[in-house]
UniProtKB/TrEMBL annotation:
It comes from the Bacteria. It comes from Kribbella jiaozuonensis. Gene3D superfamilies: Dimeric alpha+beta barrel. This is YciI family protein. Residues 3-85 form the YCII-related domain. Belongs to the YciI family. InterPro entries: Dimeric_a/b-barrel (IPR011008), Sec-metab_biosynth-assoc (IPR051807), YCII (IPR005545).
């Protein structure tokens, strides 16, 4: 398994559409958390984007997870960062 950090960037012009899709997006994230695929996630306070940390087998699995996220077909974010991450301190 590998940890990946994903940073999403939101377009302020798409806020209404993003908020419409957000309940489905959050339900999907909850399912991923329960399955052990999502470590943590959350928006930035200014609502310009979000940071998510995934625990997956590889980048291919992560890209599949992102493709199935309701935010993806709604086209309400830009993928700002997708990087494998090696934390200095263990995540508990």
């Amino acid at each position: 398994m590998a940890l990946y950090v994903v940073q999403l960037r939101f377009d302020p012009a798409d806020t209404d559409r993003r908020l419409e899709v957000r309940p489905a997006h959050r339900e999907y994230l909850t399912e991923l958390k329960e399955a052990g695929k999502l470590v943590t996630a959350g928006p930035f306070p200014d609502q310009t984007g979000a940071l998510l940390i995934y625990d997956v087998a590889d980048e291919a699995e992560l890209r599949d997870i992102l493709a199935k996220d309701p935010y993806t077909p709604a086209d309400v974010y830009e993928l700002a960062t997708l990087s494998e991450w090696q934390p200095l301190f263990p995540i508990s």
